[in-house]
Amino acid sequence: MDVLTENFSLYGKGLLGTVELTGYASLLALGLGIVMAAFRVAPVGSLRVFGTVWVTVLRNTPLTLLFFAVLLGLPRFGLVLPFTTFAVLALGCYTSAFICEAVRSGINTVPVGQGEAARSLGLTFDQTLGSVVMPQAFRSVIPPIGSTLIALAKNSAIAGSFSVTELLGTYKTLNELGYSIVWSFVWIAVGYLIVTLTISAVFNVLEARWGVPR
Questions:
Q1: What CATH number is given to the structural domain containing 78?
Q2: pLDDT digits (tens, 9 = 90+) for 103-125
Q3: Contacts 24+ apart (CB under 8 A), 210-214
Q4: For the purposes of burial, counting CB atoms within 10 Å of the CB of 212, is it exposed (0-12), middle (13-18) or buried (19 or more)?
Q5: CA-CA distances (angstroms) from residue 171 to 45, 121, 153, 162?
Q6: How far, in Å, are 25, 32, 80 from residue 94 at the CA level?
Q7: pTM
Q8: How many CB atoms lie within 10 A of CB 2?
Q9: What is the domain extent for residue 14?
Q10: Main location per UniProt (predicted)?
């Protein structure tokens, strides 16, 4: 317990950094993922191509490589932002590809007749997607989106290698102070467990309320 009690503020700062990184990246991933899913099913060919390229490139790019590209590449083009912001961009964009495919699979579960009925009433594509299709698709994609955001929380550990304050990075300071590396990692694991179980609990509540019975 000494590792935790004597370095509680350090662990707290790291945990807060992980929570903030996870929260902001999740919002970005959800927003981009839903937009890209809409692109993937849009009647405009150029939008479908853009959505397909976005998903294909990001899903097949190692996250560490994406971190290097964003945190080290963008400043070379004059875009200088805090490293935490770059980490949010990398995590959010990467995860958005998986959110997109989860949402698109939900859209595909909605009967085609629903969209045809909406169009017969004079609704535009945007209105049909937002008012008819998405609300039904959302109910079936709650579990996979929850799992994806849990993976995002764990992937945030990579940010510590790029001078971003987060939970895993605390082991460097603890190691320099001479604490047991084993117990340092035990409490780091407990921190990640708290974050992931919290996300899981939130999505369990959402699924119980709005999910499709299976």
A1: 1.10.3720.10
A2: 999 888 888 777 778 778 788 87
A3: 210/138, 210/139, 210/142, 211/139, 211/140, 211/142, 211/143, 212/139, 212/140
A4: middle
A5: 49, 60, 18, 14
A6: 10, 10, 20
A7: 0.89
A8: 9
A9: 1-210
A10: membrane
